[in-house]
Each structure stands twice: as structure tokens, then as C-alpha cells.
Specification:
The chain is rod-shaped. The chain folds into 2 domains: about 80 residues, Orthogonal Bundle (Arc Repressor Mutant, subunit A), CATH 1.10.10; about 210 residues, D-Maltodextrin-Binding Protein, domain 2 (3-Layer(aba) Sandwich). By secondary structure, the chain is α/β, with parallel strands linked by helices. Helix content is about 50%, strand content about 20%. It contains 12 helices and 11 strands. Keywords: DNA-binding, Transcription, Transcription regulation. Pfam families: HTH_1, LysR_substrate.
């Protein structure tokens, strides 16, 4: 069979069987009787069956017509179930957003983004999974998150990425640390040789630092302490544990208040892009698209010259 019957013609056949009249069935569908008659004739040609006996007393289904009408009713019921299910999925999609974000982005930026979206969509449920940049792609590929945010130097492979903000890493120490009394910038080799409070492997902050040191030919940093969040690293430095390389976003208030002091490193610039990521081939719609729009709008407003 070259073509499947269209649903409107099947619906017309069912109505003819119920009403015993082509004109009555046509009226229920808002069709002119000649158009309805033509539809039934085309349906009969497609199926290769005589479905309706047309007489002066009305239109009656043949035995084949009654069989096809019974199957057509089941097709209509399945189609109604499909449409109802699709509507339920749309409603759920439009009422729920699952986000996965790396630690620094989650701590410093996501609350503001989500706050703006919730002001526009107060009924929206937003679930946030906070992890490191290495694990965000896994959550997206498994379908456990609709939209992710990472801070790794390179966009994850196999995902669509879009820059939403800029950041840079700073070397910071507590007041009184010997590095605060230096007259010259710290050398890259000195930084690599010093025990540092570091983020864990797999985090975007650690990956950015490791890549910069490898590029400079000085190897990997020396861990004094490895911690799982920017807040933990910040607190350790304030407590005098040691120096750290950390996102400027995480310590901006501490630098302004003098709780932490920046240390310049000669020849080392640790700027990075913060990206939204999602599954390739999937079009962002509903709340995910709305949140992406919020992040891009706020990112351009906050750092217009760094895009």
C-alpha cells in the first residue's frame, strides 16, 4: 500500500457508521457533502475495498466497512492517547528544569541566573546538581540534566557549547603571607614549586591551572591540600593554610575587604570561558532555552568587553 489512510477520512467513516448518513457525518466534521463523498471514495481506493453502500435512504457501511470502522476507532483512541501523552510531557517539561553545574559556576553565578528565571516563572521547579566540570557531560548524556555549565578550558567533546560568562583565576594569600612582601611578581616556576591549596582533579579550576603550568613547561602544581569546592579553598586560605589559585568570582568580596590579597605571577594569565553545554542534536526549548537566554544576557552586561 503506497499511502496510509488519513485520520480525517477514518473519522468520517466511523461517523457514517454511527449516523447512518453521509450528510450528517459530513456536518459533524464541518465538511460539504461532496467533499465528504470524495474523501470516502479516496479511502476506498486506497484500501481496495467497498466500505459504504450509498442509497436514497442513506449510507450504510458494508461488512468490510464495519470491520475497517472498528479498526479506525482503535486508531483514533491510540492517537488521542498519543496527543494526551505528548501534552503531559510538554506540561512536565515546561514546569521542570534539571541543571548540572560545576562548583564555581554553581556557587557564584547559578543562584543569580535561577533567581531571575524564577521571578519570570515562579511556578517552575528547578533541580540543580552541583558537581565538577568532568562529570557534567555524563549527566547530560544520560538525560539526567537538560542544561549544564562547565568551567574547563576546552568545551567537552560531543556536546553543543555556548559561552555565557568570562572568569580568571588568581593566586591569593592571607594577609601576612611572605608573598605579600615581594617587590617583584612571583615566577611561574616558584608557583609550581610552592605547596598550594588546590581544587580536586576533574574540576575546571584545576584543569585550567594544570594546563597553564604544562604550557609553561614547569610541570604540575604541588598539592598542600585538595578540596572539593571554591568555598572550601577560600576558607582554607583565609585561615592561613597556604596560597591558592582560585576563581576571581569566588573571592571578589574578600579581595575588596582585604581578607585575601592577590599575588601577581609574571607571564601567567589565567582567563577562561564559562560555558553552557547540552546534548548535541537536542534543541533547547522551554525553561532550558529561557535559562540560557538569562545567562547570556547577564554575562554580556557584566563583562561586555571580554566576549
Amino acid at each position: 500500500m503506497s499511502q496510509l489512510p488519513d485520520l480525517e477520512s477514518l473519522r468520517l467513516l466511523v461517523l457514517v457508521g454511527d449516523a447512518g448518513s453521509l450528510s450528517s457525518a459530513a456536518a459533524q466534521l464541518g465538511l460539504a457533502q461532496p467533499s465528504a463523498s470524495k474523501r470516502l471514495s479516496m479511502l476506498e481506493r486506497k484500501l481496495g475495498l467497498v466500505l459504504v453502500d450509498r442509497t436514497r435512504r442513506g449510507s450504510q457501511l458494508t461488512d468490510a466497512g464495519r470491520a475497517v470502522a472498528g479498526w479506525a476507532q482503535r486508531v483514533q483512541q491510540e492517537m488521542e492517547g498519543l496527543l494526551t501523552g505528548a501534552e503531559a510531557l510538554r506540561t512536565k517539561r515546561d514546569a521542570e528544569l534539571r541543571v548540572a553545574a560545576s562548583m564555581t559556576v554553581a556557587e557564584c553565578l547559578v543562584p543569580g541566573w535561577i533567581g531571575e528565571l524564577r521571578r519570570a516563572r515562579p511556578e517552575l521547579y528547578i533541580g540543580l546538581q552541583v558537581t565538577n566540570s568532568e562529570h557534567v557531560p555524563e549527566l547530560l548524556r544520560s538525560g539526567m540534566a537538560d542544561l549544564g555549565f562547565v568551567e574547563s578550558p576546552l568545551a567537552p567533546t560531543g556536546l553543543t557549547a555556548c559561552q555565557v560568562a568570562c572568569d580568571r583565576l588568581l593566586v591569593v594569600v592571607a594577609p601576612g603571607h611572605p608573598w605579600t612582601r615581594r617587590r617583584r611578581p612571583l615566577g611561574i616556576a616558584e608557583l609550581a614549586a610552592a605547596p598550594l591549596v588546590l581544587r580536586e582533579r576533574g574540576s575546571g579550576t584545576r584543569e585550567t591551572l594544570d594546563q597553564a603550568l604544562r604550557k609553561a613547561g614547569v610541570g604540575e602544581p604541588l598539592p598542600l591540600l585538595e578540596l572539593g569546592s571554591a568555598t572550601a579553598v577560600r576558607n582554607a586560605v583565609i585561615a592561613g593554610t597556604g596560597p591558592a589559585v582560585i576563581s576571581e568570582l569566588a573571592v571578589r568580596a574578600d579581595l575588596a575587604d582585604g581578607r585575601l590579597l592577590p599575588v601577581e605571577v609574571e607571564g601567567m594569565e589565567l582567563r577562561r570561558a564559562l560555558r553552557a553545554v547540552w546534548a548535541t542534536g537536542r534543541t533547547l526549548v522551554g525553561p532550558a532555552a529561557e535559562l540560557l537566554a538569562v545567562t547570556r544576557r547577564r554575562g554580556k552586561k557584566e563583562r561586555p568587553g571580554e566576549w
